[in-house]
């Protein structure tokens, strides 16, 4: 209780009262009681800084002192306040009562904007196409069906035995992300903890990697891969096109990842390395044995983001792959694919509005893995960034 | 021979970044320089050939070496127009995204029931908005009849603000203001969907505000409004700058941005030199604008020095 009193503004009367605690009557008890009431109220600003164990029991809150109710206690407390204090309390109470309502409305409205497309996919992906022309159908389809889903899977050739987009995407995604996270971590550590000539200049290049859009370098890069090793090897359409840059910390958004890792390693205490050095660890051993175990959550976050970026990328893959299919490429070319698979049929006769059904189904198919990943590891997506030291 | 510790450490430093250095020279710096050279090459002969690109420099006389840039700015009908629209859009959308994401981050930082769920929803765009799915849902929302996302934003779109201002007799401001409000409300879909990462970064910054600052503010009886301006804003101001740069870079490298679309179009028409000249001048202009704004904003930023 002593602690709490010191935290609240109207202390003076209180402290004197404390000293002559024996002769004190109801008034002081009431004050303490009022104090307790406010401290047990979770929205009270003071309450959040008091450890759980220090909080008084909630049961006492209704009848306090000598049979005094909360209201009476408050009244006595109010007597000791001046006008501006009362006004402040009143304003605060009004704010605390109304704000949650507004907050709910704002969050609900905006969450609706975010979730609408997803609800669209769920609602449109499982309906017959004639439901699109039925004005009575808005959200809940009249004819539930898996037919559209199956057709879309066929059109995107997700069930093909060779050159399967799903397999390609997974091989690319997991492999590249894995390589890239490791190499970016090594590079980030090098930038964070070693002083060498030209470090700032080289780090400037990292920043340049973040700033320069891929579109600028894609054509020369294409030529490099097309005539690799002085024209001896054609790497276009090979997985190596994606793997080689990732292996050398130059994959998709590598600059950002190096930056994150550098910030993170800079935040770790220097004593760790000094201790390791005294114990006879070389720098690389220090990195593997001391720094990496400490960076676990940071690694996971960057890895997850890397997976998402590789999954979503269609620009880089479309520049280097001509026959190889990935999910996002299939989605990008969906119109053509659907034309070949379904719409070119003379009997089909499908309107533009009806096509939406297939598009939504394809969207649903392609984001489902990411959604599942997100749902399971949401914590690492959102809290990892905070811990990874991007801030500060 | 034994090297001193510091020297050895420097060598190890080179060792750690060597993988990246080789990769960057091969996959980043060489293509970058080459693409820059394309700006000064003859567009008609710059075509892939057996064994590599068929390169031919433009003659360095009578300003002929600037031919590609002249084409971009004088001949091409769309480039200048697109450039201006993209710059204008970026300049007014970026502050909107920043304000919006800071607002949402402040809300998501408060304690209330279902906060985890709300956060999960607001970060959802992070995993979707970079991919082709976003283009499809964006297009669909605009073209279907039952576009509830757009309908939702029209809730605010009635002429109330306009009427009120007209009533108050401020006609001239009214037009501009209602235009701004209109763009905000009709654009709410794009706004919400492109501020995932920004919210994330702001939220992290908000959680780094020391407890002592909060305590002091509540002792002195600060209202929420005062608290926001005197405590929250100074503490997150470094992240405002970071978010600003991130937002600008993100919006100007997007493939659905008009200038980038034009560059890609030129590339697919085999006009590599024109494409390179356009991309580089666009890049240079954006960098200059960002540089000026960063230099200006930097003076108002509060860095906590312990």
The gist of it:
The complex is a heterodimer of chains A (392) and B (306). Chain A has three domains: 2-81, no CATH class; 89-145, no CATH class; 156-332, MetI-like (MetI-like fold), CATH 1.10.3720.
Task: Characterise the protein shown here.
The complex is a heterodimer of chains A (392) and B (306). The radius of gyration of chain A is 31 Å and the shape is flat. In chain A, a hairpin with a 3-residue loop joins β1 (63-64) and β2. By secondary structure, chain A is mainly alpha-helical. Residues 1-28 and 44-48 of chain A have low confidence and may be disordered. Chain A has 20 helices and 2 strands. Chain A folds into 3 domains: 2-81, no CATH class; 89-145, no CATH class; 156-332, MetI-like (MetI-like fold, Orthogonal Bundle). Helix content of chain A is 68%, strand content 1%. In chain A, α7 (165-193) packs parallel to α11 (240-247) and α13 (271-278) packs across α14. Chain A has a two-stranded antiparallel sheet. Chain B has helices at residues 5-38, 67-75, 79-108, 115-128, 132-143, 148-154, 160-168, 171-186, 188-193, 196-207, 211-219, 224-253, 258-268, 272-297; strands spanning 47-49, 52-54. Mean pLDDT of chain B is 79; it is low at 141-158. Chain B starts with a helix and ends in a 9-residue tail after the last helix. Chain B has a two-stranded antiparallel ribbon with strand order 1-2. In chain B, β1 (47-49) and β2 (52-54) form a beta hairpin. With 306 residues, chain B is mainly alpha-helical. Helix content of chain B is 74%, strand content 2%. Chain B is globular. Chain B is built from 14 helices and 2 strands. The longest helix of chain B has 34 residues, at 5-38. In chain B, α3 (79-108) packs across α10 (196-207). Chain B has a single domain (70-300), classed as MetI-like (MetI-like fold, Orthogonal Bundle). At the A-B interface, α5, α7, α8, α9 and α11 of A face α1, α4, α5, α6 and α9 of B.
């Amino acid at each position: 209780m002593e602690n709490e009193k010191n935290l609240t503004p109207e202390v003076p009367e209180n402290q004197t009262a404390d000293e002559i605690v024996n002769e004190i009557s109801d008034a002081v008890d009431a004050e303490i009681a009022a104090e307790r009431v406010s401290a047990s109220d979770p929205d009270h600003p003071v309450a959040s800084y008091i450890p759980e164990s220090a909080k008084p029991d909630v049961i006492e809150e209704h009848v306090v002192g000598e049979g005094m109710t909360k209201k009476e206690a408050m009244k006595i407390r109010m007597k000791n306040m001046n006008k501006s204090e009362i006004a402040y309390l009143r304003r605060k109470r009004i704010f605390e009562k109304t704000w949650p309502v507004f907050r709910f409305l704002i969050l609900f409205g905006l969450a609706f904007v975010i979730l609408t497309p997803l609800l669209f996919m769920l609602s449109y992906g499982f309906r017959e196409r004639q439901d699109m022309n039925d004005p009575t159908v808005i959200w809940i389809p009249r004819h539930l069906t898996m037919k559209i889903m199956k057709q879309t899977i066929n059109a995107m050739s997700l069930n093909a035995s060779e050159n399967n987009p799903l397999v390609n995407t997974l091989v690319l995604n997991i492999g590249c992300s894995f390589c890239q996270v490791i190499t970016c971590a090594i590079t980030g550590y090098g930038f964070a903890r070693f002083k060498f000539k030209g470090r700032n200049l080289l780090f400037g290049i990292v920043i340049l990697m973040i700033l320069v859009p891929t579109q600028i370098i894609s054509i020369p890069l294409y030529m490099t891969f097309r005539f690799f090793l002085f024209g001896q090897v054609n790497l276009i359409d090979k997985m190596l096109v994606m793997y080689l840059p990732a292996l050398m910390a130059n994959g998709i958004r590598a600059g950002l990842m190096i930056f994150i890792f550098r910030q993170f390693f800079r935040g770790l205490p220097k004593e760790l390395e000094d201790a390791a050095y005294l114990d006879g660890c070389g720098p690389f051993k220090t990195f593997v044995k001391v720094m990496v175990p400490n960076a676990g959550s940071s690694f996971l976050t960057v890895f997850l983001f890397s997976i998402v970026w590789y999954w979503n990328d269609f620009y880089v893959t479309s520049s280097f792959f001509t026959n190889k299919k990935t999910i996002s490429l299939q989605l990008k070319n969906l119109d053509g694919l659907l034309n070949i698979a379904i719409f070119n049929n003379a009997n089909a006769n499908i309107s533009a509005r009806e096509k939406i059904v297939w598009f939504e189904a394809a969207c649903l198919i392609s984001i489902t893995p990411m959604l599942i990943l997100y749902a399971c590891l949401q914590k690492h997506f959102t809290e990892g960034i905070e811990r990874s030291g991007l801030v500060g | 021979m034994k090297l001193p510790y510091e020297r050895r450490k420097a060598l190890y430093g080179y060792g750690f970044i060597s993988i990246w250095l080789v990769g960057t020279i091969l996959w980043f710096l060489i293509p970058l320089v080459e693409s820059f050279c394309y700006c000064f090459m003859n567009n008609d002969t710059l075509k892939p050939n057996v064994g590599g690109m068929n390169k031919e420099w433009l003659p360095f006389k009578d300003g002929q070496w600037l031919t590609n840039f002249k084409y971009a700015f004088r001949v091409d009908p769309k480039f200048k127009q697109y450039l201006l629209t993209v710059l204008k859009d970026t300049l007014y959308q970026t502050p909107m995204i920043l304000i919006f994401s800071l607002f949402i981050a402040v809300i998501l930082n408060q304690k209330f029931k279902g906060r985890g769920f709300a956060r999960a929803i607001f970060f959802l765009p992070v995993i979707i908005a970079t991919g082709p799915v976003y283009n499809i849902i964006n297009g669909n929302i605009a073209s279907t009849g039952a576009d509830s996302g757009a309908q939702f934003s029209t809730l605010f779109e009635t002429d109330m603000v306009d009427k009120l201002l007209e009533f108050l007799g401020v006609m001239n401001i009214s037009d501009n203001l209602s235009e701004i409000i209109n763009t905000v409300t009709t654009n709410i879909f794009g706004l919400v969907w492109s501020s995932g990462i920004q919210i994330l970064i702001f939220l992290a910054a908000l959680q780094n505000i020391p407890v002592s600052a909060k305590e002091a503010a509540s002792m002195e009886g600060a209202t929420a409004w005062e608290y926001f301006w005197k405590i929250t804003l100074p503490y997150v101001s470094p992240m405002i700058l970071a978010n600003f740069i991130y937002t600008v870079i993100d919006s100007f490298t997007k493939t659905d941005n008009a200038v980038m679309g034009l560059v890609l179009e030129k590339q697919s028409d085999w006009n590599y030199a024109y494409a390179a000249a356009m991309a580089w001048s666009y890049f240079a202009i954006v960098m200059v604008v960002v540089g000026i704004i960063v230099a200006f904003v930097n003076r108002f930023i509060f860095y906590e020095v312990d």
